[in-house]
From TrEMBL:
<keyword id="KW-0862">Zinc</keyword>
<dbReference type="InterPro" id="IPR001567">
    <property type="entry name" value="Pept_M3A_M3B_dom"/>
</dbReference>
<dbReference type="GO" id="GO:0006508">
    <property type="term" value="P:proteolysis"/>
</dbReference>
<keyword id="KW-0378">Hydrolase</keyword>
<dbReference type="Pfam" id="PF01432">
    <property type="entry name" value="Peptidase_M3"/>
</dbReference>
<keyword id="KW-0479">Metal-binding</keyword>
<feature type="domain" description="Oligopeptidase F N-terminal">
    <location>
        <begin position="134"/>
        <end position="202"/>
    </location>
</feature>
<dbReference type="GO" id="GO:0046872">
    <property type="term" value="F:metal ion binding"/>
</dbReference>
<dbReference type="InterPro" id="IPR013647">
    <property type="entry name" value="OligopepF_N_dom"/>
</dbReference>
<dbReference type="Pfam" id="PF08439">
    <property type="entry name" value="Peptidase_M3_N"/>
</dbReference>
<comment type="function">
    <text>Has oligopeptidase activity and degrades a variety of small bioactive peptides.</text>
</comment>
<keyword id="KW-0645">Protease</keyword>
<dbReference type="GO" id="GO:0004222">
    <property type="term" value="F:metalloendopeptidase activity"/>
</dbReference>
<feature type="domain" description="Peptidase M3A/M3B catalytic">
    <location>
        <begin position="222"/>
        <end position="602"/>
    </location>
</feature>
<dbReference type="InterPro" id="IPR004438">
    <property type="entry name" value="Peptidase_M3B"/>
</dbReference>
<keyword id="KW-0482">Metalloprotease</keyword>
<protein>
    <recommendedName>
        <fullName>Oligopeptidase F</fullName>
        <ecNumber>3.4.24.-</ecNumber>
    </recommendedName>
</protein>
Length: 634
């Protein structure tokens, strides 16, 4: 079924399907029209099996190329074409297997299919791993001769990106030694995961509804419980478990940080931060600029926590009061089809092609809508070059947040749709740095649309509160994490040791700066810096903060501008992986090396806090004077 031309679901029947909220159905109980149609990848299972055999057979052909890439432009071109064919086939096979497994992980056929694909792909990946080191060993003069052949022009971006690593590539023998360390290098991360996910037992927390298991997953929801005593018990019980293992946690994180520094030095990077930013060609000043601008705006965050204190009627607010909703969740009746129409209306500023294409996908074969037994939780978008950009949801009619999830994932899918149609396979894939921009952009347009409609006071309060909470969690909290990571790595690079006490004091100093005098910081909270899984993938979380800043800036440009600003945004969507992230955003009119995009996002937060105060509190009170005229749009 071609992308964007899927037949619309017939909604005229007298008994439209609605998911039963009391039970979880089996996969076979979900109507076919509410499941995704994977026919754009494979119409029949036999086609997938044939492609898997074809992919496996290419291994022998790969073996004829090592050591020969510099022989001639003909040889190099033939290899690049073979590599592209392998990667494109791998992607198509892998996405199909992953999507089928995601729809029902308990199905043995789905398990077997994914396992067989993984085994075959792993063998091919090992066989083709010679490519980058061999290209980097070719003398510069010879590479210039090869690249002079016009037939290699379509692969120039691919080759240039491999050659960028040449100054940071060691001799073949040294590279082999480093490669042999890969499994050992995962020890700290694997041990941390085992400790958190398996060995730590947090017990149960008593609630008015009965005892609830306390886990990594349930901790967040317990901190949102309306009963303050439940929140406090959950906090102390959760962090007492970390306190009992603080020396182990500190040793594991120190091991991970020392490994980051070691790898950066071995590959001749000036710092671990520079090494992590290198693949996206992001200069360190982008990271440092984020920290500086957010630091300057911390009084805005302190204001937010004072609003929370007043709204929750708390004399002495504590850390376990920072997650509970200021406005109770709004009960809505948003059937999936109605949510789609609302999302599409909010995206009207992007024009007819975007909206029409998305309508065909969301109401046709792109989306697996509802929960079923064995289905993966949460949501994702999985775009591939030869298939539709599929979306997995666990949609519920009575949860407004699920409509935001829908538009978020639709943003990813449309990013993929435009990238596929404007780039060859070898550089259509965009980076994580860029991915969150397109999805968060859609959320900003949805907030703008909903706030522009007639809403009850409670609904307006809920929307504003949600918008504020999202910005605080994504921009402030992730930046605090990013600042902590930099302090930790700088400490090691300065020749100093990491200890439990140093970790705790450094993190406590950050907590005091970010929370100010708005609440007391309990002793155990400084252990939070030892329990964040993302820290084992260093210097990653800053992308969430830069992503929301870029999305807010772009959404303002589109909403307040004209056709030129919209064209700039589509230039970003179409660029795919043909540019580095900063270049792609620059083409859209956003310079993330400057403070303006981050400051603009923070200025929006200030406006939303004005609205939040005016909506939550008595509009005639002194606290809300002169607030009624504030614009409520991103």
């Amino acid at each position: 079924m071609p992308t964007g031309t899927a037949a619309l679901v017939d909604q005229s029947g007298p008994f439209p399907y609605r998911p039963d909220m009391t039970t979880v159905p089996n996969r076979d109980d979900i109507p076919r029209e509410h499941q995704w149609d994977l026919g754009s990848l494979y119409q029949k299972e036999e086609q997938w099996e044939e492609d898997l055999c074809r992919l496996s057979s290419l291994e022998s052909e790969v073996q004829t190329y090592p050591g020969k890439l510099a022989e001639s432009a003909d040889t190099l071109l033939a290899w690049l074409q073979l590599q592209t064919r392998i990667e494109e086939t791998e992607e198509r096979l892998g996405y199909y297997a992953m999507l089928r497994h995601s729809e029902d992980a308990g199905n043995s056929e789905n398990q077997d299919r994914l396992s067989r694909y993984t085994q075959t792909a792993s063998r091919l990946d090992a066989a083709t791993s010679f490519f980058a080191p061999e290209i980097q060993q070719i003398p510069d003069s010879r590479m210039e001769e090869l690249l002079a052949d016009p037939r290699l022009e379509e692969f120039r971006i691919t080759l240039d990106r491999v050659l960028r690593y040449k100054p940071h590539t060691l001799t073949p023998g040294e590279e082999r030694i480093l490669a042999m360390q890969q499994e050992a290098n995962q020890t700290a991360s694997k041990a941390f995961s085992a400790l958190l996910d398996v060995d730590l037992d947090f017990g149960e927390v008593e609630t008015p509804e009965g005892p609830r298991s306390l886990t990594q997953s349930s901790f967040g929801s317990l901190l949102e419980h309306p009963d303050r005593s439940v929140r406090e018990r959950a906090f102390h019980q959760f962090y007492r478990s970390f306190d009992q293992h603080k020396n182990t946690l500190a040793a594991l994180y120190a091991g991970s940080v020392n490994l980051d520094v070691y790898r950066a030095r071995v590959r001749k990077f000036p710092s671990a931060l520079a090494a992590r930013l290198f693949p996206d060609d992001v200069p360190s000043r982008v990271y440092e600029n984020l920290l500086a601008v957010v630091r300057k705006n911390l009084p805005l965050l302190h204001r937010y926590y004072r609003i929370r204190k007043r709204a929750l009627h708390l004399k002495d607010p504590a850390i376990w009061d920072t997650r509970v909703a200021l406005v109770p969740a709004i009960t809505v009746n948003n059937p999936y089809e109605k949510a789609v129409e609302t999302v599409l209306a909010s995206l009207a500023p992007l024009g007819e092609e975007y909206v029409t294409t998305l309508r065909g996908g969301l109401l046709g074969g792109w989306v697996d809508r509802y929960e079923n037994k064995g289905k993966r939780s949460g949501a994702f978008s999985a775009g591939s070059y030869r298939g539709d950009p599929y979306i997995l949801l666990n949609y519920k009619d009575d949860t407004l947040r699920d409509m935001f999830t829908l538009t978020h994932e639709a943003g990813h899918s449309m990013h993929s749709w435009y990238s596929v149609r404007n780039n060859p396979f070898q550089h259509y894939q965009y980076t994580i740095f860029e991915a969150e921009v397109a999805s968060t952009f859609n959320e900003q347009l949805l907030v703008h649309h909903l706030m522009g409609q007639e809403q009850s006071r409670s609904m307006r309060a809920y929307l504003i509160s949600k918008h504020v909470d999202d910005i605080v969690a994504t921009l402030f909290r992730q930046t605090m994490f990013a600042e902590y990571e930099k302090l930790v790595h700088d400490h090691v690079e300065g020749g100093k040791a990491l200890t439990v006490d140093w970790f705790r004091q450094t993190y406590r100093d950050l907590l005091l700066a970010y929370f100010g005098d708005t609440l007391e910081i309990p002793d155990l909270l400084d252990l939070e810096g030892l329990r964040i899984p993302h820290f084992y993938r260093s210097f990653y979380v800053y992308k969430y903060a830069t992503g929301i800043s870029a999305a807010i800036t772009l959404s303002r440009r589109v909403l307040e501008g004209g056709p030129g600003e919209r064209d700039d945004y589509f230039r970003f969507l179409r660029s795919g992986g043909s540019r580095f992230p900063l270049d792609s955003l620059n083409a859209a009119g956003v310079d993330m090396a400057q403070p303006e995009p981050i400051q603009l996002a923070l200025d929006l937060l200030s406006q939303q806090l004005d609205l939040l105060e005016a909506t939550l509190f008595d509009e005639d009170s002194p606290d809300s004077k002169n607030k009624r005229g504030c614009a409520g749009t991103p």
